[in-house]
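Researcher: Good morning. I'm working through a list of sequences from a screen, and I'd like to move beyond sequence-only analysis. For each chain I'm collecting a predicted structure so we can compare shapes side by side. This is the next one on the list. No need for commentary yet; just the structure.
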Amino acid sequence: MVERPSSVVKELVENAIDAGSTEIVVELKAGGLQLIRVQDNGEGIEAEDVSLALQRYATSKIRRAEDLFNLHTLGFRGEALPSIASVSQLTLTTRVAHSLSGIKAVCEGGEIKTLAETGCPPGTEVEVRQLFYNVPVKRKFLKSIRSEIHHVLNHFLRLGLAYPNISFRLVHDRRVLHDLVKTESSLVRIEAILGREIYQHLQPIGWEAGEIKISGYASLPSMARANADGIYIYVNQRIIKDRIIHKAIVEAYRHVIPTGKFPVVILSLIVPPSAVDVNVHPTKAEVKFRDPDRVFQAVNGALRSIQEPSAAAADAPSKREDRALPQAETIPFFSSYGPPVPFRFARGRRDETVVPEVREAPPPGWNRERGVPIRIVGQVHGTFLVCEGDQALIFIDQHAAHERILFEKLKKQVEMRSFPVVRLLLPLLMEVTAEESFMLSSCLEEFFSIGFEIDPVGEKTFAIRSSPSGIDGEAAQEMIREILEDLKMVKREEKGTEALNTMLVTMACHGAIRANHPLRKEEMEELMNNLNPFHPSTTCPHGRPIFFSLTWDELSRQFRRKS
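Model: Good morning. Structure tokens for this chain:
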């Protein structure tokens, strides 16, 4: 199913892997909208089979009906090339090793225009131009170039993790974004993609439960992230999303990391092809297990084994392999398979994970000075302020209220270009993952507008030269990482203003008072005074309500009193 450029890249790269390639190059122009070119050094396609390969449902990977229950390849339906060709201008050039020349097929809108002999190296090159040129509706719904590149990068890096023995290169507009050199060490590839910080917190997994073999790496409880993007699941080296496995992973870490946080897990399951159905989703992104309960127990036990070795061993129904993280030579994790601003009370960990969705405040309409005075009664559960008005009892979420106040102050500072900035005496080096590197590189201007002067000094290393006033050292790195995580979670196009708003929301949330944080009376008064300009219907920048009122009539009815 071709939905966007990343779908094309995924299908073509998977075909190259099935062809036994050891080198794969992906080249894009304009995020893949103008050009997608995938080159490999695989076995190629026989000349007489080229025209057949461009026909729907024609595949060389299924020869008998029984092969459907013994799939060892990533592709098998014979739909990828024809589907891509039908919505683009496609050129296929291929040559098998034993042939002196290759064959070139030019296809437009699914129709083969020319088929001729040509000179080319062994392997296959597929060039896709003007994707969706003949389906303008689909092209209209594509996102920005930055967003499309992000989707391509996601598939590219996940495939790179699964196949460390293959060299992968990603080029965009003649700029090399990633060059993953083939290696026999899975940890070398993990470090290249996820960075040294994550790499140093990983423990190897080795587990067997009957016919299920589990290998990979998982983070210690000391490493936790704000979203589940660090969970990579592979079944027979196929990238999948599975609810059962995801639940088993979360359950294994439930009592060792905070609620709302997720581990980093790279998990590979090897199961007999007959025990899993990979043909249950149009994009082959999901699978169906014959015995899902057994898979759940195996995954849960494998992950518990690196946290509680003795307990996991006692619970395990089958043999487990205990291994220490190697220092020099590493084991393969895939088995071979065929700034805070003034008015801040406290700082700490964010109390919840939410997708930044900025909602502008309504026009100012509530002002205590102009209306009947509101008396602060007190604080409930260290989280909510209780106030008495003329006609109602008013509850205020202190975190949401402070977050909106800070967001408006930060936004005004950016608009007035008066953001307080501190120049660091020595640059602070920060290493990020490959995905975060691309995102950070594309948002340097937005980061600069909020006080972070950041320069790239390596493929995944950046130098922080200035930071907002009050944020330095580890706090600056933590803030940048939180912003990057929130940017990844934003579903809208991340054009300049939207990305900047996301950053301001993160900073406001980071600097706002926490829930379960007792306030002194003076602090409550200050918070209320700063809330004067805001209307009672105002929400926090994430869209959560700040105020809740309970009228005296409603309260009286609860006690069966007459109004």
